[in-house]
Specification:
The complex is a heterodimer of chains A (808) and B (172). With 808 residues, chain A is of the alpha+beta class. Chain A folds into three domains: 42-148 and 215-263 and 270-303, Aldehyde oxidase/xanthine dehydrogenase, a/b hammerhead (Aldehyde Oxidoreductase, domain 3), CATH 3.90.1170; 382-479 and 648-799, Aldehyde oxidase/xanthine dehydrogenase, molybdopterin binding domain (Aldehyde Oxidoreductase, domain 4); 497-643, Aldehyde oxidase/xanthine dehydrogenase, molybdopterin binding domain (Aldehyde Oxidoreductase, domain 4). Chain A has 19 helices and 28 strands. In chain A, a hairpin with a 4-residue loop joins strand 9 and strand 10 (228-233). The longest helix of chain A has 28 residues, at 563-590. Chain A starts with 30 loop residues before the first helix and ends in an 8-residue tail after the last helix. With 172 residues, chain B is α+β, with helices and mostly antiparallel strands. Chain B folds into two domains: 13-88, Ubiquitin-like (UB roll) (Roll); 96-171, [2Fe-2S]-binding domain (DNA polymerase, domain 1), CATH 1.10.150. Chain B has a five-stranded mixed sheet with strand order 2-1-5-3-4, with helices on both faces. Chain B starts with 12 loop residues before the first strand and ends with a helix. Classes of the chains: A alpha+beta (808), B alpha+beta (172). At the A-B interface, helix 1, strand 3, helix 3 and helix 17 of A face helix 1, helix 2, helix 3, helix 4 and helix 5 of B.
Amino acid sequence: MTETSVTETSVTETIDATAKLVGQPRKRKEDARLVTGETMWTDNIQLPGMLYMSILRSPMAHAKIDRVDTSRALEMPGVVAVYTGADLAGLGIPCVWPVTDDMVAPTFPVLAIDEVRFAGDAVAVVVADSRYRAADALEGIDVDYSPLPPVLDMTKALAEGADLVHSDKGTNKCYYWEFTGGDYAASAAKATAEGGRIFKRRYIQQRLIPNAMEPRAVVCAPMAATGEITLWSATQIPHVVRVLLALVTGIPEHKIRVIAPDVGGGFGSKLDLYREEVIASVVAGKLGRPIKWTESRSEGYQATIHGRDQIQDIEIACTADGTLLGLKVDLVANMGAYLQIITPGIPLLGAFMYNSIYKFETLHFGCTGVFTNTTPTDAYRGAGRPEATYAIERIMDDLAAELGVDPLDLRAKNWIKHEEFPYTTIAGLEYDSGNYEAATARATELFDYAGLRAEQASRRASNDPVQLGIGVSTFTEMCGLAPSRILSALKYVAGGWESSTVRVLPTGKAEVVTGTSPHGQGHATAWSQIAADALGIPFEDIEVIHGDTKMAPNGMDTYGSRSLVVGGIAVLHAAERVVEKARKIAAHQLECDPADLDFEAGVFKVRGVPGAEKAIQAVAFEAFTAHDLPDGVEPTLAADSTLDPNQFSYPHGTHLCAVDLDTETGSVKIRKYVAVDDIGNVVNPMIVEGQVHGGIAQGIAQALYEEAVYDAEGNLVTGTMVDYLVPSAADLPTLTTDRTVTPATTNELGVKGVGEAGTIASTPAVVNAVVDALRPLGVDDVRMPCSPQNVWRAIQAAGANGSDGGQS
Amino acid sequence: MVSPIVGVRVSTVRISVTVDGQRYESDVEPRQLLVHHLRDGLGRVGTPIGCDTSNCGACTVLLDGHSVKSCAVLAVQADGHSITTVQGLANGTWHPVQQAFHEEHGLQCGFCTPGMMLAAVDLLAENPDPSDAEIREGLEGNLCRCTGYQNIVKAVQAAAAAINAQKTGAAQ
């Protein structure tokens, strides 16, 4: 391993026309259609004879279905068909991540058959000739329910004699999964023996609703004569959906075409096979007509996965001077009522990240998955890693307060020094590169950390009713999902590779086919930049093709900050192979050895022979005519690459947040937010900055605003956008962002991934700031979201406990 | 089970709505929302639907020049009125707001963008030189999940500058 390259750069973002495109803030190719409304959202699709599907959903969290009577609905205007669970029996959603051999995996039917298990559970399907009449006819279905006791509280669900979500399983426990590095008990004993500490905290990850702006939608067009179906879906994973749809429905895979047209955000919520995709495929086939289903926002709040929802018990063993020894984490993770495709694996994606950037000697991680009568959980931006980062970064601030040291000093004492990379962590991951010192130095400078600490001291001293809080988050994450051998070890049933084909067409234009499936990330732009540099073909002459299993047949799609690190490198490899093929053709025609050709800006030049040259576009035409190709070289100019990464990548960064907190009202206002991220080299800094902004906004949203709340009967009381606070522009601060650049050493571009970084880092930075503001009042935790009410209650509770806070 | 009945009679109301400069004569159900009329009735699908409670603003259009959430207007209420959607915003060249959203990376997935841009057009008509805080307050009814709004604010500032420069140029 070569020495890690470390630079401390402040980024200037200007376009240099002569430079490589990688690294430049090129404006996005995607925008022209999006800003003019020439879009192809799934719900835009209209097909001749198309029917509309609506779904009757359970109003109860848990009940026996005694009777479903569809006769009135069948007589209603425009209704074409009505189906119940019995009609679609045998069709279900599979879980592709059985995390343990004894995991409890209940059958997840596409329509409930004899029991509903969450509010919003699908009970019946109406197909009608219009959107409105399909909705009207839901009123014509009569269902008799016998209520069963809802299971909502995770701790109670695990208790002996608890009511059961799935009575046939005899337990609400889905699994217990354990992972250890070294002997935590030995670290704890050492800490105790040497006068150190065992420091324990419990944090709550509230349940969140992902809220991609485009609701989910499905259109299915069957072709009876050939048995083919085309499924358009607002999905992040068209390739995975195709495979699973074939397995679930029995429709042969080669007869299924899945298209993810324009997709309006995902954040993990469209990383799934959903019931509606299966139902639409099967019902369209039964009726021989195209079918559309689009969820309403409120429907989606119940029918699309939720995120987070964990109880986190975390414990650190450390020496008296704050040197970290051991880390113990016990999670209880809410699965919801059923397992979606990767529900049980989500908390485990965090298992290797709790130790974060710190040098622990030992690690013990345990996670209990539990069923409740709630909407299933699954991936939400960061998926397991935000939860891990939240817990470790919260406890680091809390431990620093306990020890009476600055939270940055405690971190610096324990993090991996930049000269120690590559470093194998106690979780067994080899971090290839990083420079936590550099990112932190830049962040504290931009933040004026010392100045704000001084102001904080004076406001504390003067008992200012509006206190200043400062929160720290020095995070890392594992990106680039994923090396297939590691997925295998984790019992995930698929691989983590990505695929690309690059073609130079006869007229010199190029097509880049990618297996990634963007939905806002700007792959068409970024992949064009990568390919333009490699091929020497202008950015504008490159078209990126994605999101259609017929046009981009191989792929593992977009999630887990994987697209650039895996898919982008596949694009690079395919383009390089194209150049190598072109080199052979050019050498043949220029009558030289391929090794004697220089390739510069798209032109092969015979070294030392001025004027003896051939552009790659001309080579492409020669490859097309095939009149004069060297022996053994096939016509056309194209190449493939399918890349399975060897390692994860490890972006990191330092986020600092300052809040003004009104101790009389509980209101929290973010005064300053600084994020310095190190995501290695950057393909497009404009896109990167946008990803960081949006990620931080979602993390702030968890910290301050959002929570999915069920009442005691299991009704989702935050069931509409009126009740669930997705922050607006007025709710969010202006962010200060910068980057340090420590290239990844595990891929040629030195890139690490950025899609989730902001979300992972920001939640603990904000909550740490809130708690920091309140420490003089004796508050050491505020339950998320840190709404005025939750903050105010924490202040009152601390006062009631007889703290010496003084101001409350 | 398949219904034995085919076809349906619907009582409708005749309306005339100008959309992006083109007048459309239509018969609509009285209960039909304007956004559904635009999308399903007229095929003007550039205006998307993001929620069912008039919170998200994705379906924002201009009604006689003022921004409205087209999920909160009945098609019959638009009778005799003029609607501008995202598809009618450009006039030969992109509107300064469209250009600014592109230049400042004010969009990612683009789903909120039509509504966000039309709300911005209305905002700038009322307040040609807004502060960042006024932009944030003014766009409070339009939700975006991708951008964190920072580049949207920048885009609206850039659009304001461009529109003001155009006006100054025209006045001279």
